[in-house]
């Protein structure tokens, strides 16, 4: 789904523009490397058990690598009657069309909402439904101007913790993607594990204030 210039102001207000920029530059996932770290994940402490001690991904890492806000309201919700009625229905993000140049501002806002739903479902909170977006995000995008007041960084980190804990507890066999946050953290904290000749500027570890 292409990022149109007229959508950028809405992404900036939502605190998701840096993530949207990274969306086009995600690196190839090193599954053996990521799996090796997940095997060292300890659910009881939410840390990686390493030979030198314990370490973990922090909110600071999320803020620097994904540029997400880590202050604000908690991202939570409830099962409304509407949500329970449409539970199991997830629109495919391939249905979203490119924004027309002469689109009205209201159309741009609708497109921005769709883009943000795609971004949340495929980059931060992806599950095994692959190309589908979850309708749990509708209440948030409906209040587009309020999205920047939420701690999306904390929610993304909690989601990653939850997924890794499920794998560690052997409840599932595969970790739902994306895992770029975990891998970029590995590259940032363990430079010797970067591929040979891999330039630091090519992976998504970047302080948003410096971009």
UniProtKB/TrEMBL annotation:
Entries under PANTHER family matching the protein: PROTEIN MAIN-LIKE 2, PROTEIN MAINTENANCE OF MERISTEMS-LIKE
Aminotransferase-like plant mobile domain boundaries: 15-195
Protein name, as recorded: Aminotransferase-like plant mobile domain-containing protein
Domain of life: Eukaryota
GO BP term, pick one: meristem maintenance
